[in-house]
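Hi R.,

Here's the chain you asked about this morning:
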Amino acid sequence: MGLFRSFQNAGPGIDPNAPKKKPFFRFWELLRRNFGKLLSLNLLYTLLHVPGLFSLVVYLETDNKFTNAMTLLLLAVQFLLEGPIMAGCARVLRLIVLDKPFFFGEEFRKGFRRNFGAAFLYWCLDALVIASLLAGHWVYPQIAQATGNKAIFILYGISVSVGLVLLFMNYYIWALQVATTLKKGTVLKNALMLSGLSMKHCLISTFGIALMLGLIVLLWLVNSYFMFLIAFFPAAFIGYLVMFVHYPIVQKFVINPYYEASGEQNPEDEEVIPEEERVFTDRGTTETPVSTDRKKGKVIS
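And the predicted structure, written out as tokens:
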């Protein structure tokens, strides 16, 4: 916009060889630049959870012979879609973190469709552990109270530890799935290894997720109307945070070593075009801005 200065004036340009910003500043720069895409992604994520939300409405607001069957059917549909939805989101978030141009709907569709089977398997594993944790939270205290044996909480602690390990693995599972062609077992193995190699990064992501969820709860306590924001922001922001923190680890230990060993061009790097084949060379800040000042001439009246 040329409100305060003309966009036609020559400027210093942008240096194409400028060093990358520090991760903290790059995080906020990419967030600002892709804020609209993240809003769209969160809205799509919310819309694809309509079956689950509608199942709650059916269960609470209806009371007839079809209520339970309809509720279970809607929950089954949501369960089937949950993993592929996360795969589609992961593909979009990866391209945002890589700062690559892309078509939003097309990339989400590719991530959803191409990873459907594997994503469903990963989600089944997540759901099994979540169900185990919920059951343990309810059962173990009752067993300890009934038997008077506090040692039962050791098993509870083990189940919580397994859930925490799986959470850390999830920081890598989806990125590995959408960025590589590894088999499902190899993806899980690499996710486990990477989570062990990057404990600090896992703790940063976990703290960021807890902070975002805490903020949502705080806003809900202030005014319940703030829950409307859930449809537009928190899920996409959490996904962006996780992808930004952990995808460089995937690049460092999985993607880059593969292309270095094979000698192939890494598609995530900018392809270097030989000087003699270039049609245009961006000189950025190496050129001197052209002066546009003009002296006023005499006016003949």
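The chain has one domain: 23-264.

Let me know if you need anything else.
M.
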